[in-house]
Write a structure and sequence with these properties.
The chain is α+β, with helices and mostly antiparallel strands. The chain folds into three domains: about 180 residues, 3-Layer(bba) Sandwich (FAD/NAD(P)-binding domain), CATH 3.50.50; about 150 residues, 2-Layer Sandwich (D-Amino Acid Oxidase, Chain A, domain 2), CATH 3.30.9; about 80 residues, no CATH class. About 35% of the residues lie in helices and about 25% in strands. It is built from 13 helices and 19 strands. The strands form three sheets. Strands 1, 2, 8, 9, 10, 11, 18 and 19 form an eight-stranded mixed sheet that branches. Strands 5, 6, 12, 13, 14, 15, 16 and 17 form an eight-stranded mixed sheet that branches. The chain has a three-stranded antiparallel sheet with strand order 3-7-4, with no helix packed on it. A hairpin with a 3-residue loop joins strand 14 and strand 15. The longest helix is centred in the last third of the chain and has 21 residues. The relative contact order is 0.15.
Length: about 425
């Protein structure tokens, strides 16, 4: 198919191997890896490059494994400590006790931009500020109609479509007749402060989380420290600004951490407060005829961990591996041939990481009506160095490759610290979660 190019405008018609919609962590990683493997790729992103993307910003050590290295500028600060709090107790888990850190803190706008820049250098076409107006999938390929301010409408054709739109692109799922993942809600608020505030007031942890079921029923209230700024948020089936604000202003365990901080609006934000959706389970079928779902669009996140960047990047890696295999075997990316993508996700993500999230979610959130189990967990961290070492290992563990059941080991350690009478109460929950024998 001919390609007609005009300076300062999109090509009227472009033919690619892969068309990607969405320039977040999964889409950017897919464009980078695909271009590196010699596949022709165009990525369509509705926002301008470097615009704000809501994210807690926790990037564990295991997230680095198996991916091209990123420059230091992609990260805000080292995550050396984590501070869990319940209404009754608190503890600082410090990776330096074991000669390591827990990971890095990222600002998604910077992090995603680094990957998009890298993809562009490898030869990927990155179309910023561009909206996918319509999608057509036929037996021969896909066609995406694009619109952008000040530019003529254009069509990008490809062999396959990677849908990497997160939870903001469900209208495209509907248009394609593809399953959407179930979701929960989140409120994230951004703050600016002095670095002194980060170092001194928030020094007890690069990542704080406060467990109180009166605040949320399925997850903690979190604070993530960056450079001269931090964010905070809650996740629940249904969230409200009023509940968030009440926690920040009235709860003594949290209130002091916000003293002197001011709400911040990042480039691309209309308000410092963002309400967004987070998947709570993967879709049953992350592929269709000439379509692969990546990252949050495929439900590859879990509200217990609040981590989607690693899952998104890993799904991108698997999607590209699938396309390279089909290219080498000279097979078309029809649904039957794309089924291997689902198998890869099952092996590395759905059957391990997401199962771990379900087990822990059941044990710590759904099984009890109070926070006492969290208090036992925090107390166990304080008393048991072996448990601390195991939790630190969880930040390093490559879930895609390991056969080690760290959830079981941690569950047994926590269970042993519970008083005898409480053991009787909690034993059925630990057994159902598969964390004790």
């Amino acid at each position: 198919m001919p390609v007609f190019k005009r300076h300062g405008a999109f090509p009227c018609i472009v033919k690619k191997d892969i068309v990607i919609i969405g320039g977040g962590a999964s889409g950017a990683m897919a464009a980078w890896l695909a271009a590196e493997r010699g596949l022709a790729v165009s990525l369509i992103e509705a926002k301008e490059r470097g615009a704000y993307h809501p994210c807690s910003g926790v990037y564990p050590l295991h997230s680095f494994k198996g991916f091209p290295p990123l420059p230091g500028s992609a990260f805000e600060r080292d995550m050396v400590t984590m501070r869990p709090m319940s209404p009754a107790s608190a503890f600082v888990l410090d990776g330096r006790e074991f000669g390591t850190s827990l990971g890095k803190i990222i600002l998604r706008s910077t992090f995603d931009k680094c990957m998009l820049d890298a993809a562009e250098k490898k030869g990927a076409d990155i179309l910023d500020g561009t909206r996918a107006k319509g999608i057509e999938v036929t037996g021969d390929g896909v066609a995406v109609t694009c619109v952008a301010a000040g530019r003529p409408e254009s069509t990008i054709r490809g062999d396959v479509l990677f849908l990497a739109t997160g939870t903001s692109g469900f209208h495209l799922h509907d248009q394609l007749g593809i399953e959407k993942p179930p979701v929960v809600q989140s409120i994230i608020c951004e703050y600016e402060c002095s670095e002194r505030h980060v170092e001194e007031v928030l020094s007890a942890g690069a990542y704080h989380y406060y467990v109180n079921k009166r605040v949320t029923s399925i997850g903690p209230f979190w604070i993530t420290c960056r450079r001269d700024s931090f964010n905070a948020g809650i996740i629940d089936h249904h969230v409200s600004w009023e509940r968030y604000k009440e926690t920040v202003e009235k709860d003594p365990r949290v209130k002091d951490l916000f003293a002197g901080a001011r709400e911040k609006v990042w480039p691309g934000q209309k308000s410092p407060r963002v309400m967004t959706l987070i998947p709570r389970a993967p879709v049953k079928r992350p592929h269709a005829n000439r379509v692969l779902l990546l990252g949050d669009a495929a439900g590859l996140a879990h509200p217990f961990y609040y981590e989607g960047v690693w899952q998104g990047r890993l799904s991108a890696k698997h999607a590209v591996e699938t396309m390279v295999r089909l290219r080498d075997e000279n097979k078309a990316p029809i649904a039957e041939n794309l089924a291997g993508y689902k198998a890869l996700l099952a092996r590395t993500l759905v059957n391990k990481f997401n199962r771990s999230g379900r087990k822990n979610s059941w044990l710590f959130w759904e099984a009890t009506s109070d926070e006492s189990l969290w208090t036992f967990f925090i107390n166990a961290l304080a008393e048991n160095k072996e448990l601390r070492a195991l939790i630190v290992k969880c930040f390093e563990l490559d879930y895609a490759e390991t056969t080690d059941d760290v959830d079981f080991k941690a569950g047994e350690m926590i269970f042993q610290t519970i008083p005898t009478l409480k053991k009787i109460l909690f034993a059925p929950h630990f057994l159902r979660a598969g964390t004790i024998r």
